[in-house]
Amino acid sequence: MSAEGGAAGYSIRLTDGGPEFACMPGDTVLRAALRSGIGLPYECGSGGCGTCRVQLKSGELEDLWPDAPGLTARSRDRGFRLACQSRPHSDCTITVRVPLKLGLEQRPRRRSAVLVSKIAMTHDITEFTFKTADPAEFLPGQFALLSLPGVTGDRAYSMSNLPNEQGSWSFVIKRMTEGAGGRALFDSMSVDDQIMLDGPYGLAHLRADSTRDIVCIAGGSGLSPMLSILSAASRSGPRERKLDFFYGGRRPADLCASTMIERDALLRKRVSCFSSISDSTYAEPWGGARGFVHEVARRSLEAGSDPTSKDYYFCGPPAMTDAVQRMLLDLKVPVSQMFYDRFV
Ligand SMILES: Cc1cc2nc3c(=O)[nH]c(=O)nc-3n(C[C@H](O)[C@H](O)[C@H](O)COP(=O)(O)OP(=O)(O)OC[C@H]3O[C@@H](n4cnc5c(N)ncnc54)[C@H](O)[C@@H]3O)c2cc1C
Ligand code: FES
Q1: Does residue 202's CB lie within 6 angstroms of at least one atom of ligand 2?
Q2: Which of 121, 149, 151, 234 is the most exposed place for a label (fewest CB within 10 A)?
């Protein structure tokens, strides 16, 4: 590999006899590894979780986000880096402490995408659909990294639709107050605007080889990947398989899961959707459950058939996913039946 980088990029070598791969100009170490079929450990792909931590042994890595919450200043001083926030400025050698997965089926690619529709679902949740020239290849539950105009750092958004030949990528996105990505998507971007879309990423995808009943649990923006997983599960697997979806928000105006499920005839037929609200001060009549979504799901699971016989997919803010995970462990659900993304 060229020591000068340039068009040929830089070479990243793993210590202890691990593989070597090329990192092309502008790419991060994590994305380059995955594009080469080398499964470096990762979760969020956006600096928040720390799963992609590697130790730099030689060479120079630019830190794209020095304040990323996924790494402490102390770890940084000891030579650790986040592979998802590191761009090489020379050939490098790194150590990865968690086993690698080799020969990945889904290799991410970066391509341009055009915004084709923007449909408001609630006061702060909108469905954005982009179109790419080539097919939209991903596993239900995965996410893409979007480079948005005027925003530093890519943002992770999970696909809500199914993989398709037409190159259609839909994302259900919740606007966070003061967020830069939200500002770009909700305020600045219009239909026909172009962005760069990199994907697919993510490990919390539908396990197509399992025939167990499926329980999906989400709060707020966690809706997006759950729709994709439920759409795929309702079109494959055993017909008698139960598909339950617990979706929570603060108040009724925050919820749109039932509306989105109603749009699809198969989802409408196959999925039992239980919406809940958590704002205890909300005094208007409400036909659904009350409480945090993990509490509502727990009540239902305890009243139903053996909770350990199902697969669980869940997504949302870390406080919510942590609470769901604790609840499931309490019900003795094996970790191998839990698949989740924390929207860090
Ligand atoms: C795997 C995954 C899937 C997600 N899927 C969805 C989804 O389907 N729908 C949805 O609404 N939300 C989703 N999110 C959350 C989403 O990525 C954003 O965090 C959220 O929308 C707020 O973004 P913002 O730009 O508006 O806010 P901001 O506060 O501006 O940014 C928040 C996030 O952007 C990243 N970031 C901020 N600054 C930088 C920087 N300098 N360099 C690099 N990165 C930076 C970090 O990840 C940070 O947590 C997902 C998150 C993850 C990790
Ligand atoms: S994958 Fe890099 S911090 Fe989460």
Answers
A1: no
A2: 149
